[in-house]
Write a structure and sequence with these properties.
The complex is a heterodimer of chains A (276) and B (252).
Chain A: E1 4-15, E2 18-30, E3 34-39, H1 45-52, E4 60-63, E5 66-69, E6 72-73, H2 79-85, E7 90-93, H3 97-100, H4 107-117, H5 123-136, H6 142-146, H7 155-167, E8 173-177, H8 185-202, E9 205-209, H9 213-219, E10 222-227, E11 230-236, H10 246-253
Parallel strand pairs in A: 3-9, 3-10, 7-8, 8-9
Antiparallel strand pairs in A: 1-2, 1-4, 1-5, 5-6, 10-11
Helix pairs in contact in A: 4-5, 5-7
Chain B: E1 4-15, E2 18-30, E3 35-40, H1 46-53, E4 59-66, E5 69-70, H2 76-82, E6 83-86, H3 90-93, H4 100-110, H5 116-126, H6 143-155, E7 161-165, H7 173-190, E8 193-197, H8 201-207, E9 210-215, E10 218-224, H9 225-229, H10 236-243
Parallel strand pairs in B: 3-8, 3-9, 6-7, 7-8
Antiparallel strand pairs in B: 1-2, 1-4, 4-5, 9-10
Helix pairs in contact in B: 4-5
Classes of the chains: A alpha/beta (276), B alpha/beta (252).
Bound molecules: adenosine-5'-triphosphate (2 copies) and magnesium ion (2 copies).
Chain lengths: 276, 252
């Protein structure tokens, strides 16, 4: 079943030095599955994710032939309708967690805000839920973290607080932009298990944006590979490490390996046909 | 004698009656021209150690020496010419209203160094950013592009020691490769010393000679690169990190 469909999405920015086309005609469908988006830095992954929530600030512009979420026309929706969707039905874990947390509000208050206002929970009940959410993402000392301000968290703790916060309203679609890049491998595995459970048990749709090709290969169902604002390849995640497209192969070749040689890592050959 | 010597370092953050001991009696030594890796649990105190070296964390015990001398407080200009840090969070560490040009030229101005134009262009080039980006603001860049600016800025003063906090976790495979190659080239050419944090054991293995594994504020185990690659760790925690990195091993 299709939860989200995107047709010919374009994002452009007018800058002093001309128009920057960040996304150039991206189309995809998402079901209740784990869809990975990979591709080099600047290829338009974040802008694609933000477009779904219509979170592109001027001078940025979004155009699309169609962008539909669970029957709602996202291009035609009013700003009020979009606000009602954001966070509750479509949530996004931003690439930079601390930037999207309120710097002058305690973590606990931020986690409890929605629970109290949206779900009408009592203070005590909201507190219990929030602590549970922190425990689920492997925060060692949840009561302490509830009282902390965002700048008092480590990089990976900020990332986990964001994930906890986005998952509290049980969204139908989660867009996670580099959600585990600051996590060590064992904590990362626990966080991925939570996301996996939500897709499997609750039928949540997940867009998982990541640079980590090996992680995407083992965690996602399907992968879109982006290059300069376009999707250059779409494949089953299990095939990612044996991708045929020279760009995807090029990215894979650049990776260091434990026990590998100390020579300079191979770069990406940008002179090839696909690069133009 | 090691170039960076940390002995029994403890750091406790305090605010309004609450206190968090982020680092507890950690010791490590980094030889000149060596590259030393810090790995471990999220929240275990890795960034705090780097920040303590720069005078940005409340040290409550132990000593930090560079080249045999205790680091001065405040650290001062001579220190920043010698030691530079690339922060984990490239968004927070770049001034939102400064163009890349200003971000990169400011350290030069503070230290009274000329040839600003040439050095800024060279720095952009070194980290693979097009020169047309020179007058962009941070919000006009992608996450990985910002991280490259942060690395370029740390290199402006040609420091001897680089403290690198997750320098490539925001970068794609190709830019990561270019950045790691650049860092290694600079280490050889300019005799740099690195103390770096990364969650990616393949990156640590590629870059570092020695590795300290941390958990919950404490040093758990120190390993050589050979120990890591041949799975010769002694503690359960270090082994669990290694096992969970199975997808990064060289295929036999
Ligand atoms: N406000 C802006 N003005 C001009 N260009 C912009 C602006 N915001 C983003 N861009 C450009 O849009 C392109 C796509 O950016 P996006 O953030 O989607 O990349 P990304 O694939 O998420 O990269 P990364 O992996 O580094 O986060 C980049 O080249 C970026 O420089
Ligand atoms: N300014 C601060 N005030 C209070 N506590 C802090 C502050 N900065 C860090 N901490 C705490 O110190 C501990 C160690 O944080 P640190 O940032 O050093 O961890 P880290 O090992 O770098 O983790 P990560 O891998 O997630 O970045 C954490 O529990 C964190 O909450
Ligand atoms: Mg991005
Ligand atoms: Mg850190």
């Amino acid at each position: 079943m299709t939860l989200l469909s995107v047709r010919n999405l374009k994002v452009s920015f007018d800058t002093e030095t001309g128009v920057v086309e960040a996304v150039r005609g991206v189309s995809f469908d998402l079901g209740r599955e784990r869809l990975g988006i990979v591709g080099e830095s600047g290829s338009g992954k974040t802008m694609t994710g933000r477009s779904v929530l219509r979170l592109i600030r001027p001078p940025g512009r979004i155009e699309a032939d169609e962008m539909r979420f669970d029957g709602v026309d996202l291009m035609g929706a009013s700003e009020t309708q979009m606000r009602a969707l954001r966070g509750r039905r479509i949530a996004m874990v931003m690439q930079d967690p601390k930037y999207s947390l309120n710097p002058v509000m305690k973590v606990g208050a931020q986690l409890m805000e929605g629970l109290r206002q949206r779900d009408g929970l009592t203070r005590a009940a909201a507190h219990i839920k929030a602590v549970e959410a922190l425990e689920a993402v492997q925060i060692r000392d949840p009561e302490r973290v509830m009282l902390a301000y965002p700048h008092e968290l480590s990089g990976g703790m900020g990332q986990r607080v964001m994930i906890a916060m986005m998952l509290i309203p049980n969204p139908d679609l989660l867009i996670a932009d580099e959600p585990t890049s600051a996590l060590d491998v064992t904590v990362q595995a626990e966080v991925l298990a939570i996301l996996d459970g939500l897709v499997r048990d609750r039928g949540m749709g997940l867009i998982f944006i990541s640079h980590d090709l090996r992680l995407v290969a083992r965690f996602c169902d399907r992968v879109l590979v982006m290059y300069r604002g376009k999707i250059v390849e779409e494949l089953a995640a299990r095939d990612l490490l044996h991708a045929r497209h020279p760009y995807t192969q090029g990215l894979l070749n650049c990776l260091p390996r434990i026990g590998g040689p100390r020579q300079p890592l191979p770069g990406l050959d940008r002179s090839a046909d696909w690069a133009v | 004698m090691a170039l960076i010597e940390i002995e029994n370092l403890s750091v406790t953050y305090r605010s309004k009656g609450r206190s968090v001991t982020a680092v507890e009696s950690v010791s490590l030594g980094v030889e000149a021209r060596q590259s030393f890796g810090l790995v471990g649990e999220s929240g275990s105190g890795k960034s705090t150690i780097l920040r303590a070296i720069c005078g940005l964390a409340p040290v409550t015990g132990g000593t930090i020496r560079i080249g045999g001398d205790l680091v001065p407080t405040p650290r001062g200009r001579a220190f920043s010419a010698r030691v530079q840090m690339v922060f984990q969070d490239p968004y927070a560490s770049l001034h939102p209203r400064h163009t890349l040009d200003r971000t990169l030229s400011e350290p030069l101005a503070i230290h009274g160094i000329g040839q600003t134009d040439a050095r800024v262009m060279q720095a952009l080039d070194d980290v693979g950013l097009p020169q047309s980006f020179r007058f962009r603001y941070p919000h006009q860049l992608s996450g990985g592009q910002r991280q490259r600016v942060a690395i370029a800025r740390a290199l402006m003063l040609r420091p001897e020691i680089l403290l690198l906090d997750e320098p490539t976790s925001a970068l794609d495979a190709s830019v990561q490769a270019e950045t790691l190659n650049l860092l290694n080239r600079l280490r050889t050419e300019r005799g740099l010393t690195f103390l770096m944090v990364s969650h990616d054991l393949a990156v640590i293995d590629h870059m570092c000679d020695r590795i300290l594994v941390m958990q919950n504020g404490r040093a758990v185990e120190e390993l050589s690169r050979q120990d890591l690659a041949s799975a010769k760790m002694k503690t359960d925690y270090a082994r669990s990190l290694f096992s969970a990195s199975a997808d990064r091993m060289l295929e036999p």
